[in-house]
Amino acid sequence: MVRDFRAIMFDWIFSKLSYDLGIDLGTANTLVYVRGLGIVIREPSVVAVKVGTNKVLAVGNEAKNMIGRTPSDIVAIRPLRDGVIADFDTTEKMLHYFIHKAKPKGRYIPPRVVIGIPLGITEVEKRAVQDSAYAAGARDVGLIDEPMAAAIGAGLPVSEPYGSIIVDIGGGTTEVAVISLGGVCARGHTRIAGDEFDESIINFAKLKYNLLIGERTAERVKIEIGSAFPLKEETTTLMQGRDLVTGLPKTVRVSSVEIREALSGRVNTIVKVVKDTLEETSPELSADIFERGIVLTGGGALLKNLDKKISQATGIAAFKADDPLTSVVRGTEKIMEELDKYQELLIRMPKR
């Protein structure tokens, strides 16, 4: 009885000193959930470093504000490209920053961490994510496929014998997954996503207006007037940059029709991946999907009328999840809260 009481007290003290994190480590943004506190960090996956020394000067929002504005000895970089780690050391430093920033006061025991990862990455890339988290101070790391986490976060019945389809459009990748009984039954993947939408707008500005614009301007234009399907009321916005002929600052007014045309090639690629995945799906699961519809998550799902475009192309109702940007991290939240239920969905690799 004494031993049981001591065990209970130990568990209680341990729970008060430790904490659990869920991380959506995205190409464009990183979101961090702390069990009991909710989503505490929602910042760009950007790190500003000093050239030559690799000393980290800023991370997240502060670093993103430096893009395009830094002197020659400072560079603002994104350590993840196309949904995978391109720069291990910088990713480790970024994770270390976010994990320590999310640490609640009075919690001294290193956290357990669940991290969402792209569905199609290699074993080596999975290892890189896991090692980065351990190096950043985690005591235990579990990985979860992002489409599965997004489906859980969107409230889909992933453990039931019914087919659900999720289209997760992030910054670097678009992943499509048909899920049933806790597994992925059909999948599709492309490295066309939000970043490529921005790149399309940058190329459009060069070709049509001889205008060189930055990533932040392209992103703003995309958010303000970008669309995948005609709008009820077409609109315009100003686009500022540098004239490629004169080298001087220049402003042009562009329309939502122009931007939609600029985005159409990338949008059509995503639509094709959705259709190809549906073609690989069994008749029984296809019937479930037709009844339940296609769920869109991720920042790219916020492109205006993308759901209408996909619905028109597939003949199946498509709709955005509630707050698509947070679906993956809310999925890690549910996993942390019901770890026994979702334990089998986690990917764990031997710790080195």
**CATH architecture type of the largest domain:** 2-Layer Sandwich
In the CATH scheme, the class of the largest domain would be Alpha Beta
Protein structure class: alpha+beta
Main beta sheet: 5 strands, mixed
Shape: flat
What's the number of domains? Answer: 2
Query: If you consult CATH, what is the topology of the largest domain?
Result: Nucleotidyltransferase, domain 5
Per DSSP, what share of the residues sits in E-state strands of 2 or more residues?
25-35%
Q: How would you describe the oligomerization state of the chains in this entry? A: single chain
Your description of this structure?
- With 352 residues, the protein is of the alpha+beta class.
- It has two domains: 18-45 and 79-149 and 328-345, Nucleotidyltransferase, domain 5; 162-321, ATPase, nucleotide binding domain (Nucleotidyltransferase, domain 5, 2-Layer Sandwich), CATH 3.30.420.
- The protein is built from twelve helices and 18 strands.
- It has helices spanning 2-17, 61-64, 88-102, 123-135, 146-153, 194-209, 215-225, 256-279, 283-292, 306-314, 327-337, 339-342; strands spanning 20-25, 29-34, 38-44, 47-50, 55-59, 74-77, 80-81, 84-85, 112-117, 140-145, 164-169, 174-180, 183-190, 211-212, 236-243, 249-255, 294-297, 318-320.
- The strands form five sheets. A five-stranded mixed sheet has the order 3-2-1-9-10, sandwiched between helices.
- Helix 3 packs across helix 4 (123-135).
- The longest helix is centred in the last third of the chain and has 24 residues, at 256-279.
- The radius of gyration is 22 Å and the shape is flat.
- The model is unreliable at 9-14 (pLDDT under 50).
